[in-house]
Amino acid sequence: VQGTGGSSAVSKCSAAARGYIKDRFLQLLAGRRRRRAPLIHRGYYIRARAVDHCVQDFLLKTQSHPRTQILSLGAGFDSLYFRLKDLALLHHTVVYEVDFPNVVCRKATLIKRIKELSELVGNTAGEGFGAITFSGEYYKLLGVDLSKLSELERALEEAGLDNEIPTLFIAEVVLTYMENSRSDALIQWAAEHFSQACFLLYEQVHPEDPFGRVMQQHFSQLNSALHSLAQYPDCEAQQRRFLGRGWTECSVMDMNDFFTCCVPEDEQQRVQSLEPFDEYEEWHLKCSHYFVLAASKGMEPSWTPLLPSVTVPRHAGPVRMAGSVPAAQCAKLSGVPGLRRYGHRSVLIKPNVILTTGGFGEEDGQHRRMRNFHVLSKSAGCWKAGCVTKKNLDKRWGERLYHTVSCLSDSLALVVGGRTSPSSAVLGLLWLKFPETYSASDPDDLAVELVNLQPAAEPATLRWRHSTTEVIFKGEQYLFVYGGCSALDPVLGDWYFLHTRELSNTEIAVEGPVPESRHSHSACSWEGGVLIAGGLGAAEQPLGSVFLLRELEHGFQWQAVETHPPLVPRYSHTAHVHEGKLLLIGGVWFHTSSVPGITVIDLMTGLCLNYVINVEHLEWPLMLHNHSSVFLPNEKELLVIGGGGNCFSFGTHLNPEPVSLSLSNILTS
């Protein structure tokens, strides 16, 4: 548990060094500097922002009181006191910090040794008296095990904590490491013994979905199990926990809601532009698995959204499910190297033959951008893996992620766009050439040749997380390239008609209301046009809109597709059309405790039905984002290949093998 505090301090320090938070004291207290990934920076930014929001709200509402106090539980090497003192916000507020005795001893030694810190504390007295390790006029360090409530109460009394003045309790990922009976007793003790108090809690939530399972496994491996999750698995349970233990007001929201509703738009944009970023799924999943709670008693709640005109989006309970779809492992594909990947593309190049390209994954025990291609073929009801022999592959492929592959004939597929890193997307167009006679019943090596195409710098190709969809207009074949990201623009709303024979952009008239810019959406051919569904918008918010690019005599027209009930906004899903029904598979969505399964939209009536995926026969968490899927209409089978990603600081989870979903029950006419 103490190790998690040290790691947290280093991560906060790295976020400060990149400009996410302003805190010149973190480096002095953390001691060591280590560069973290942008995803970690964002995660610790939103944590620090939530705590600062509540602390400053408390100080503002109590500024007329002659004395106030802040009690930080499990403070570790946090810099709260020094930041507030440096900003001249502690005119009449005493800050008490409690942690294990050896932790506070190390912190006290640091403060005494570093002049910049010791000067902000001032004269010290009473050190070494009981649990009081360090004592300044406005700053007290106490070494006590929080799970021993009687010792904590006695130490706080000796240090001068006053239960009659306004008090803010802070617990950042602390109580969850304690047995529930002990943390519940601490919450109740705080409500019963302080007449005017607020309690700020920041912890994890949603333990049973795939991300939550990876999160729990991580902390268990660190020997720091998250005890509160079993009894308090969601925000509502945490709210009931506090209201049932003496607190009269309690507000709670997950960090997606907090970022949307309590961080001003200009500040959101500042954070989003600090460094190249392309881990949206992991960022939003991390935020949906942490919450901030503010409870109060005897005073106004320490919770005022900075944007009062914005209400927190809420669903009226879980998303209603119309049924379930069984998921089955493909036994003969277990352990096949190279299928653990994300950000790749899988395409049906022949009947029952699937080619998978690109992405980031695991091969030979290492995580890396994937250069190797893989082929899957189905014969006699079983999927088998075959080999791909490649020509000109290593030089021309470019280790790309988030590209598209469109099979345009029996022997040709066109690769459009993709990236190597979030700041590089100059990968252009490639033809993939393969034999016309490859048979699924007799899988042998599949020979794939790459042909580099010029010009490679067309605007249509310099993007990733886009879509390419085949359309026929006036007898000519085009790829409709839409949306995505670029190195210059985090979200695109433009489109191109790429003539497949000449590989040139063609001007074709498009009328109607232009859809909101988006990336990580889905696109399918339907009735001569293109169906666009979901995606992530310019404000990094999932979209729930569905549009049809409808063919007209002189061009095309955008037309909104109304669904009822409304489609839950999502992105990073895949999609297929079958007999007038749009199938959306997986993805990431907000504001609901469930994870996306399969959504079926009747394109004639607009009826929108959600189905949960039954994963009881899978031995591992199934993450349905950054995956690819191939639909076999004759068998009504959907094959999901790859998927997953970096689960914040909890490690990388990649679906270990393809999964077969039988859709026969939900696609009966």
Describe this structure in words.
This is tRNA wybutosine-synthesizing protein 4. It comes from Grallaria varia. 23% of the residues lie in helices and 31% in strands. With 669 residues, it is of the alpha+beta class. The protein folds into two domains: 54-297, Vaccinia Virus protein VP39 (Rossmann fold); 324-662, Neuraminidase (6 Propeller). A hairpin with a 5-residue loop joins strand 37 (644-646) and strand 38. Helix 3 (38-61) crosses helix 12 (255-262). The longest helix has 24 residues, at 38-61. The radius of gyration is 28 Å and the shape is elongated. Mean pLDDT is 90; it is low at 305-310.
Widest β-sheet, arrangement of strands: 3-4-2-1-5-6-8-7
Q: Tell me the CATH topology of the largest domain.
A: Neuraminidase
Q: Tell me the name of the CATH homologous superfamily of the largest domain.
A: Kelch-type beta propeller
Write down the CATH class of the largest domain.
Answer: Mainly Beta
User: Strand-residue fraction?
Assistant: 25-35%
| Count of domain modules | 2
Which CATH architecture of the largest domain would you pick? 6 Propeller
Could you report the average pLDDT, rounded to the nearest whole number? 90
Q: What characteristic shape results from the CA principal axes?
A: elongated
Using DSSP, what is the number of strands? 39
Short recap of the structure:
GO terms for molecular function: tRNA methyltransferase activity. By secondary structure, the chain is α+β, with helices and mostly antiparallel strands.
List the helices and strands and how they pair.
Blueprint: H1 2-17, H2 26-30, H3 38-61, E1 68-73, H4 80-86, E2 93-99, H5 101-113, H6 115-121, E3 132-135, E4 139-143, H7 149-159, E5 167-172, H8 180-193, E6 197-204, H9 210-221, H10 228-231, H11 235-243, E7 249-254, H12 255-262, H13 265-272, H14 280-288, E8 290-297, E9 323-329, E10 341-342, E11 345-350, E12 353-357, E13 360-363, E14 366-369, E15 374-379, E16 382-386, E17 388-391, H15 393-397, E18 404-407, E19 412-416, E20 429-433, E21 446-452, E22 467-473, E23 476-484, E24 492-499, E25 504-506, E26 509-511, E27 522-526, E28 529-533, E29 546-551, E30 555-560, E31 574-578, E32 581-585, E33 598-602, E34 608-614, E35 628-632, E36 637-641, E37 644-646, E38 652-654, E39 659-662
Parallel strand pairs: 1-2, 1-5, 2-4, 5-6, 9-34, 17-21, 26-30
Antiparallel strand pairs: 3-4, 6-8, 7-8, 9-39, 10-13, 11-12, 12-15, 13-14, 15-16, 18-19, 19-20, 20-21, 22-23, 23-24, 24-25, 27-28, 28-29, 29-30, 31-32, 32-33, 33-34, 35-36, 36-39, 37-38
Helix pairs in contact: 1-3, 3-12, 3-14, 5-6
